[in-house]
Design a protein that fits this description.
Strand order of the largest sheet: 2-1-3-4-5-6
Number of domains: 1
Strand content: 5-15%
Order of helices and strands: EEEHEHHHEHEH
CATH superfamily: Alpha/Beta hydrolase fold, catalytic domain
Shape: globular
Number of strands: 6
Radius of gyration: 15 Å
Number of helices: 6
CATH architecture: 3-Layer(aba) Sandwich
Structural class: alpha/beta
CATH topology: Rossmann fold
CATH class: Alpha Beta
Oligomer: single chain
Length: 183
């Protein structure tokens, strides 16, 4: 059976950065505004917010959330963390959408920050999703976020990664999809 997999990238990144999955390039002005139907929805960082902003229209499928923005933050705090992440973790410039999309992306960030990520994921049946956290993500899905996730009984898998997608995250995602179960 072919599994329909949709990935929604993290802040200002392309779908192509995520290893060949289909997806929605939400950070481009020309991107579709809705999510296609899928068996699996993979969201990274702000991409989780985008998926959850459409949760009421998603009637089936499983979810993999990578380094989600669990705790509410203001835009200045988020921007400051993004700048530190960009320079310290070392995201490559070629992974970032062109600058002519940044104003659009910034407006989208403001919209997506209104999504109550933690509130919505607590409503999703626990067998339908899990969260992957980079052990070294101190920028967005930090230790306080991990504690909130664990305390709510949500399955959290920590891998050797920072905030950005890497091989360890990719292997964990693939293993889940190949095994088609969360447990």
């Amino acid at each position: 059976m072919n599994k329909r997999i949709i990935i929604v990238p993290g802040g200002f990144q392309y779908v192509k950065n995520y290893g060949g999955y289909d997806g929605v390039d939400i950070w481009l002005k020309s991107s579709p505004k809705n999510l296609p139907t899928a068996d699996y929805y993979i969201g990274h960082s702000g991409g989780v917010n985008f998926i959850l902003s459409h949760y009421d229209s998603i009637h089936s499928g499983k979810f993999i959330f990578i380094n989600p923005l669990i705790r509410k933050r203001n835009i200045l705090s988020l921007l400051w963390n993004w700048i530190k992440f960009f320079f310290i973790e070392g995201i490559r410039r070629k992974k970032i959408v062109p600058i002519n999309n940044w104003l659009y992306g910034f407006k989208l960030v403001l919209k997506l920050l209104k999504v109550d990520v933690f509130g919505i994921i607590q409503k999703i049946p626990k067998e339908k999703f899990f969260i992957i956290k980079g052990k070294n993500d101190v920028w967005f899905c930090d230790k306080k976020s991990a504690e909130m996730i664990r305390n709510s009984g949500i399955k959290l898998i920590e891998v050797d990664a920072g905030h950005d997608w890497n091989q360890n995250i990719a292997e964990t995602v693939k293993k889940f999809i190949d095994n088609s179960n969360i447990n």
